[in-house]
Amino acid sequence: MEYLVTAQEMKAYDRTTIQEFGMPSLVLMERAACACVQAILDEEERAEGRKRGRRTLVVAGCGNNGGDGLAVGRMLMQRGFCVDFVLVGSREKCSEETAAQIRILENYGCRILERLPDKEYDILVDALFGIGLHSKLEGIFAGAVEYMNQQDAFVLSVDIPSGIHGDTGAICGCAVLADVTVTFAFRKMGLMLYPGAAYAGRVLCRDIGITEESFRDDKPKAFLLTGSPKELLPARRPDGNKGTFGKVLLAAGSYGMAGAAVLAAEAVLRTGAGMVRVFTEEENRIILQSALPEAMVSVYEEGKGWSAQEAVKLQEALSWADVIAAGPGMGTKKAALGILDTIIETSRKPLVLDADAINLLAEERVLLGRLEALQQEEGERRTLILTPHPGEAARLAQKETKWVIENAQELCREWADRLQAAFVCKGARSLIAGPGGRICLNGSGNSGMATAGSGDVLTGIMAALAAQGMDAFPAACVGVYLHGCAGDGAARRKNEYSLTARDLTAELGSLL
C-alpha cells in the first residue's frame, strides 16, 4: 500500500516536519533538488545513444516550487550544464526560501532573467507552480506554459506539472506536458487521476525527509495498492474443500446476453471461489453448460414475467449461496426487477451489484430507498459492493455523466456512506470508496481493458473475494487491482488493441 495525499494534507505534513520536528525548510528544498538532479542525470545516461545537449532552462515561479527549481539549476550548473534561470512573476512576491535561492545564485554570479529567452534548450526544469494551484493560469503564467510546451526539450516537472490541480488532476486552463515528474515524500492525487496523469509523464516519488511520522493523528484518506496481487488474497486452507472457499450465486444473463454470465462465472472460479451457480434465463442454459461445465445453472423463463414460482426458485438458490452477485447482462425487464427485488428483500448475504442491477436501482427509486434504509440499520446491513461506470453512476445519482467524471471522489464517498458499502466508480483510474471517507485509487490496468465484458469479469472477481471471507472495502480494492493487473499481463502477452474480456479471465491463472 502506498499513501496518496491531497495538497492540504501535504502542506500539513510539510509544516509538521519543519515546525515540530525542526527540519529546516531549505534542507528539504536541497534534498528535493538533489532528487530532481539525479533524475536528469539518469535520463542523460539512459539516452546516451541519442545524447541531448546540456543547455538547460529553469522556469521558476515565486513560491517554494520555484525555489526547488532554482536549486536544481544551480546543482546542474556545478556539474557542467549550461543553465539559464528565469523568474516568472515579481521578485517581491517570492517566498522566503525562494528569495534565499535567488541570493545564493547571485552570489555565484548567476543572472536571474525576467523574461523567457528566445533560445532553444535541451532540458527544461518546470518549477512554475506546485501542488497549491487551484485557479486558471492566465497572462504571463499561461505564456510560460505555452513556451515550455513548444520547446523540443526534455521536460522535468518539479513535484507536479505546472497547471495541474493537485487533488483532482484537472487542467487549470493549460498545463506543462512533462516527460518526467519528480514528486516528493508521497504521491499526489492529481498525478494519478486523469488528465493530470497524462501530463505528468513518468512519475518518480522520492524521499526528502518528510515521513509518516508527520501524519500525527491525521493519516491520508487515500491510498494505492502496489506489488504482487497474490499477496493481497485470502490465505488458502490446505485442508479446505469447495465449500470452504465459498459458494457464489450469480444472477446474470438475459435473452441474447449469455456471454456476460459466462465471463462473470468463469472469473468467480479463477479467483478462487469453490462453487458458482448462475441464475439466468432459460435460453442461456445450454450455452453456459457448454462454455463453463464447472458452473451450476438455475433458470427462469423471461417470457413468462416474474411469478411466485420463479421467486421460490431464486430463494432456494439464495439459501444455498454464501455470496450473491447480480447485474451482468441481466437486463432491466420485469423478470430482472423481480430478481433484484427478491434479493434485496429476502437475503442479507454479501452482495455485489453491477451493470443492470444498478440501472434498475436508478429507475426504481423506491427499491433504492429500501436498500438504503436496510443498510443504515445495524441489524439488517449486509456486505455490499456497487461497481458502476460513470454513466451508471450518473443515473444512480441523477447527475450528468460529465459531473460524475469531474467529481468522482465526492460521489464515491457520498454513496459509500449512504449505502454503507464499497462504492466503485470504474474508469481509467477507478476509485473505490468505503464508509468513513476511505478511498483507494487504482493504478493498474490499461486502455485495452475498455472492451465489452471487462466489467463482468470484475464482478466475478469481487464476488469470489467476498466468498473467501473478505469484507466489502478490501474485496473491492483488491478486486479492482487484481482485474487491472490481469489486464496488464494480458496486454504484455498480446497488445492493448486486441485485448478481450476472455483474455482477462485467462490471465488470472498465470497471475495468481
Note the main attributes of this structure:
512 residues, alpha/beta, Rossmann fold, UDP-N-acetylmuramoyl-L-alanine:D-glutamate ligase, 2 domains, twelve-stranded mixed beta sheet, elongated
Structure report:
- The protein is of the alpha/beta class.
- The chain has two domains: 2-220, 3-Layer(aba) Sandwich (Rossmann fold), CATH 3.40.50.10260; 244-511, Ribokinase (UDP-N-acetylmuramoyl-L-alanine:D-glutamate ligase).
- It has helices spanning 7-20, 25-46, 64-78, 96-107, 139-150, 189-192, 196-200, 258-270, 285-291, 308-320, 334-346, 355-363, 365-376, 390-397, 401-406, 408-419, 454-467, 472-493, 501-511; strands spanning 2-5, 55-60, 82-87, 112-113, 123-127, 154-158, 180-184, 187-188, 202-206, 222-224, 247-251, 275-281, 296-300, 323-326, 351-353, 384-386, 422-425, 431-433, 439-441.
- Strands 8-1-10-19-18-17-16-15-14-11-12-13 form a twelve-stranded mixed sheet, sandwiched between helices. The protein has a seven-stranded parallel sheet with strand order 4-3-2-5-6-7-9.
- The chain is elongated, with a radius of gyration of 27 Å.
- The model has no long low-confidence stretch (mean pLDDT 96).
Kindly summarize this structure in a few lines:
The protein has 512 residues and is α/β, with parallel strands linked by helices. 44% of the residues lie in helices and 16% in strands. The strands form 2 sheets. The chain has a 12-stranded mixed beta sheet with strand order 8-1-10-19-18-17-16-15-14-11-12-13, sandwiched between helices. A 7-stranded parallel beta sheet has the order 4-3-2-5-6-7-9.
